[in-house]
Amino acid sequence: MALNQTAPGNGALMVYSPLEAVANLSAEISGQPSDDWEYSDYRILSPDGKRLKWVANNAGTVQLHPQTIALPAGNYRVVAQADGGIRVTVPVVIASHQTTVLHLDGHDFPPGETGFNQTNSVRLPDGRIVGWRAAAQNVPAS
Fold this sequence. Notes:
The protein is mainly beta. It contains one helix and eleven strands; from the N terminus they run ββαβββββββββ.
C-alpha cells in the first residue's frame, strides 16, 4: 500500500546514497554504453530494528533522482551504504508534511539547503555531515 505524503500525519524521506552502476542490457545490445547509474538501495527500520521497507532507490525518471518515500510521522532508522563503502545506520525523524533528506553520497549539500548549521549537524563516525537534527518542535512522539 503506497502512502500519500499529503495525507494527515505523513511526511517523506529522500536518501542520496552512493551511486552504483547497473547493467542496461538494451543499450548493450544496441552498442551503446552498457551502464546506467542509480542511487544504491537501502532499508528503513523501526526504532526497535524491525524491517519496514526495502527501497530500490531510483525514482524511475530519465534524470537521476532518488526515491521519495512517504512515511507516517515518527522515528526511523535508515540502513544504507555511505560514500566510501561504509555501511551505516542513521536515525531519522519524519515530520508531518515535511521531507527529511539524508546525504550519504559524499557530495556537499545543495546551495540553499535550509535548517543546517554546525551545531545541529548529524555526522558519520568519521566526521562527515549527512544531515541535521530536527528542531525540537518538529519531533513527533514515537
